[in-house]
Write a structure and sequence with these properties.
Layout lengths: L1 H18 L19 H4 L20 H6 L3 H5 L7 E6 L2 H12 L5 H12 L1 H5 L3 E4 L4 H7 L3 H10 L6 E2 L5 E2 L11 H8 L3 E2 L2 H7 L3 E9 L3 H12 L4 E9 L12
Parallel strand pairs: 1-7, 2-3, 2-6, 6-7
Antiparallel strand pairs: 4-5
Helix pairs in contact: 6-9
Length: about 260
């Protein structure tokens, strides 16, 4: 029976490909199957590879920093989380894929992005218990209809039997506005209790090794707040895995979720 339904799905997919040929997610050129980039667009991706900072994931160029495993900023002040990895540099090209997922209902982009995240974050995922997406406030979730971080996390969790996908472990209690122009103390006050672990989950979090998932890591303010509340709830460790990150660690401000 399973083979019958598999054959039916394959036949239906073949008909759809004839009627609507699969196209490149970036430029629209024809591809072998849906959810892929053409070879020309794939060559434009700025992948992040070693050496990169073990803590914040930015590419490292200075030999001395590479040997120590940390960038200069993280040596001075380590992020709240333990380690982070990103699949791509956040540039004009990766931005197009991510914003398409985030704001233009291009949910098919999530599978491609998650596949590349799995490549970049294999070590983090293999040693984790839970995979947890950065939450959206309910007002933004209502407007957007889905949380792009949760879509990425769901695809990632499907490839690892040891990983439990936990989309509701974190809750965004307040919808914070951009904090870019605020001094550090005011930013901290605005973010206070904006993200939390609901009381019903706090006991379960204790001792868990968690990978936090988001689409982009720029300043780390949002990821840092998520990691902080998870650690305060008793998580054994929190690592961060994103589709893209900036090529350098930026001054702290609140990312636009």
């Amino acid at each position: 029976m399973k083979s019958f339904f598999a054959a039916l799905r394959h036949f239906g997919g073949g008909i759809l490909n004839v009627a609507l040929p699969p196209s490149c997610m970036a430029c629209g050129a024809e591809t072998a199957q849906a959810g892929l980039l053409c070879s020309a667009c794939f060559s434009k991706i700025a992948f992040i590879s070693d050496p990169c900072c073990d803590a914040c994931g930015v590419p490292l160029t200075a030999t001395g920093f590479a040997q120590r495993g940390l960038c200069a900023d993280c040596e001075q002040e380590h992020p709240v989380w333990r380690r982070s990895r990103g699949a791509f540099i956040y540039d004009d090209f990766s931005r197009r894929l991510i914003l398409g997922l985030k704001y233009q209902d291009r949910t098919e982009n999530a599978l491609f992005l998650a596949t590349q995240m799995r490549r970049a974050g294999t070590e983090l995922l293999l040693n984790a218990d839970w995979i947890v997406p950065v939450p959206l406030h309910r007002s933004r979730l209502w407007h957007r209809r889905y949380n792009q971080a949760a879509l990425l996390a769901k695809h990632l969790a499907r490839n690892y039997r040891n990983l439990n996908f936990k989309p509701d472990i974190l809750k965004r209690a307040r919808n914070t506005r951009s904090l870019a122009s605020m001094p550090a103390r005011q930013r901290a006050e605005m973010m206070k209790e904006a993200i939390l672990v609901p009381a019903r989950h706090r006991q379960a979090v204790k001792g868990r090794r968690i990978v936090l998932i988001d689409d982009v890591l720029t300043t780390g303010a949002t990821a840092g707040m998520c990691a902080q509340v998870l650690l305060e709830a008793g998580a054994a460790s929190v690592d961060v895995l994103v589709a893209a990150r900036t090529s350098r660690r930026l001054p702290e401000r609140n990312e636009d979720q």
